[in-house]
Amino acid sequence: MSQNKGVAVESLWPTPKIQRSGATGPLLRQERAERTREQILHCAARIFAERGYQQTGIKDVADEVAMTKGAVYFHFPNKQALAIAVVDELYSRWPVTLEAVRGKGLSPLDTVIEMFNAATVAFLEDPIMQAGTRLQNERDAVDVELPPPYVDWTNLISMLMREAHQQGQLAQHVDPDVAARVAVAAFFGAQHISDNLNGRADFAERWREVRDTLFPALRARPSLAADPDRPVTRG
C-alpha cells in the first residue's frame, strides 16, 4: 500500500512488465524486442516528464537507455512516435485501474474517490503518468495530434457520478455531470499548481484537501428520521 501524506491506496495503478517465458527462436526474439521497446518507452517517459517535449531528443533517450540511436529508431521512427506511444500507454492503463477499483466492491461515489487516489499515487511515482500528462499539456509543440486532455477523465467520472446519483448517494441539489466536471477540474488544478510551485512534492496533501472539502458537500446526508443519534426535541 502506498502512503503519501494522507493518501493511502493499494497499488492499483498498472505497471505491466514483460516476463521471460522460456520461448525460443522467433518467439524469443519477439519477446526481447518487446522488452527493449518497453525499456525505451519508460526511459523516454522519464525524460519527457523532466524536460518536456521540445527539450528531449532521440539521442537523449538513446543515452539514457544505453543504446545507439539506430536501436531506438528501430522501435520508434521519430520523437513524435515516442510521444504518441507514451500517451497511448497512459490511456491504456485507466481501464485496468478502474477494473481493479471496481473489484474492491466500493460504491460509485467511493469508486470516484479511489480513482483519484490511484491517480495521485501515479502522478507522484510513475513516469508514464507524469510524461503523458505533460505531453498533452504541451500538445501544441508536438507535431502530431494527441488526444485532448481531461475528456476521457471527465467522461469516466461523469459515468460514476450518474451511478452514484441513481443510487441516491448524491445530495438532491447535485447534478452528476456538473459534479464530475468540478471534481476533475479541482483534481487536475491541484496537480498543476503543486507541480508548478513545488515540483509536485505536496500534491498528495493538496489532493487530500480537495477530497475532504469537495466530496462531503456532494454526498447525500442520511435522513434525520433514520438517524438513531438524532437528538430528541420536545415542542
TrEMBL record:
Keyword list (alphabetical) reads:
DNA-binding, Transcription, Transcription regulation
**What Gene Ontology molecular-function terms does this entry list?**
DNA-binding transcription factor activity; transcription cis-regulatory region binding
Annotated ranges, domain HTH tetR-type = 34-94
Pfam families reported in the protein's UniProt record: TetR_C_45, TetR_N
- Specify whether Transcription is a keyword of the entry: yes
Q: Does the keyword Transcription apply?
A: yes
DNA-binding interval(s): 57-76
> SUPFAM superfamilies given for it?
Homeodomain-like (SSF46689), Tetracyclin repressor-like, C-terminal domain (SSF48498)
Q: Which NCBIfam families match?
A: ScbR_bind_reg
Q: What is this protein called?
A: TetR family transcriptional regulator
This protein's species is: Kitasatospora aureofaciens
Per the UniProt record, the lineage of the source organism begins with: Bacteria, Bacillati, Actinomycetota, Actinomycetes, Kitasatosporales
Which gene is this protein's source? mmfR
